[in-house]
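BACKBONE STRUCTURE TOKENS:
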Amino acid sequence: MTLQKQLVKIALLTALTVAVSLLFIFPVPGTNGFVTLAEVGIYTAAFLLGPLGGFWVGALSGGLIDLFSGYPQWIIASVLIHGIQGGIAGYFFRKNNRWFDTFGFLSGSVWMVLGYALATGLMYTWPAGVASLFGNTIQNIFGVTLTIFLMSALRKINHPLMKEGVR
């Protein structure tokens, strides 16, 4: 796959992730944060484009979602946390094995949940960091579930991205 095609796919998946996340945004007052559907886009990009695509979609969409939703104090943390989350998941998804897929979802989710707990604790208070664990865990469970359904649907319709990507 050429660099230009890869960049276009990263840009499109980033835009789609940001748009869907901003449509369904749920503020969490106790942590001065929010819950979105960003994981669906990040894990889908990692699944289709591998670790580099997962990293860039995660980093770019994480930062843009914070910028557009009025939470600029989170941009740096989100770029790092979601970028690494997508990279971790993409690394394991590249193994083309269901056990590695499960480990990719699990390790990416654990990284995200713990990363935001640490960031929240540093930016606000440690009780707020602990409080963020529940919302971020729910966000990841929901995101992983929707991603599994989405990838299953893409396989069934024999989507062209499935031929060029990991699967």
About this structure: The longest helix spans residues 38-69. The beta strands are 26-28, 33-35. Helices lie at 3-23, 38-69, 75-93, 98-123, 126-156, 160-164.
